[in-house]
């Protein structure tokens, strides 16, 4: 568990930003994963608070390097959306700009065809063009896919994320599959990463070292609101938070809730804000395992998070 406030830096060439450093900053919780020795694996299997997974269960067909790259990209996206939400809440001008189309997850059928995206594309691939049409962002990709048929083969040019395109560019012929949500709609067969960036009045840097993933989005948002307004949003409680944040202020579900609850309780948190979208069993198990040591509060959006903090003496945002 780590406080967000000390990780914030504001770069304002005009010197107009007024910062109100919080004495009691919100904390974010991260689930770490690493390769285990035989002894560590045994200890993990015995310890019910540790989730031991095989390499295939953890990474699937991807490599640890590919997963780390995408994890860092997800963290960058979480920071950007958090800035957008916080600045819009405070009345600043903030706009989102779409970034490149990056393969974050492959959609694989039970028996994927040899030329399906599952077998031809890789995690971290950046789409350059589809059937000769440039696709620099998802906005350009969507019209290219209109009226396509399941089974149609497209020529897709890609390169690797964070690599020299001239050295990693390749052309793949990919057969379209039916969307899991609508069998009449043809899709390439991947879920894109959130690569949007935000334009705000001044630059914000959030130091997250080598931590990956989007689950600190809510914590980042609360920390930015706290630092840019007088008073203390956290009130008298030591607050931990987990959950993604969307541009509409919705708090999204995360993984490893049980482990994160144990970490928050062990670090001395009083309140743990978690996504209301987690299953009832997940929330019940997290509450059971920490007992009276930690108050777990499910929240569906930013407004509910602020209302929960107000119950612990948290201040209000300026209208």
Question: Would you mind describing this structure in some detail?
Answer:
It contains 10 helices and 19 strands. The protein has helices at 38-46, 55-59, 64-89, 117-120, 138-144, 165-168, 217-227, 257-266, 280-290, 302-310, and strands spanning 2-3, 8-11, 27-28, 95-97, 103-106, 125-130, 133-134, 153-160, 170-175, 177-178, 186-187, 190-192, 197-199, 203-206, 239-241, 244-245, 251-252, 271-275, 295-299. It is an alpha+beta fold and 319 residues long. The two termini are 31 Å apart. A 5-stranded mixed β-sheet has the order 1-3-15-18-19, with helices on both faces. The protein has a 4-stranded antiparallel β-sheet with strand order 7-6-8-9. Helix 3 runs parallel beside helix 7. The longest helix is centred in the N-terminal third of the chain and has 26 residues, at 64-89. Residues 39-46 have low confidence and may be disordered. It folds into 2 domains: 2-30 and 51-93 and 203-310, 2-Layer Sandwich (Ribosomal Protein S5, domain 2); 103-192, Pdz3 Domain. Helix content is 30%, strand content 21%.
Ordered list of secondary-structure elements with their pairings:
Blueprint: E1 2-3, E2 8-11, E3 27-28, H1 38-46, H2 55-59, H3 64-89, E4 95-97, E5 103-106, H4 117-120, E6 125-130, E7 133-134, H5 138-144, E8 153-160, H6 165-168, E9 170-175, E10 177-178, E11 186-187, E12 190-192, E13 197-199, E14 203-206, H7 217-227, E15 239-241, E16 244-245, E17 251-252, H8 257-266, E18 271-275, H9 280-290, E19 295-299, H10 302-310
Parallel strand pairs: 3-15, 15-18, 18-19
Antiparallel strand pairs: 1-3, 2-14, 4-13, 5-12, 6-7, 6-8, 8-9, 10-11, 16-17
Helix pairs in contact: 3-7, 8-9
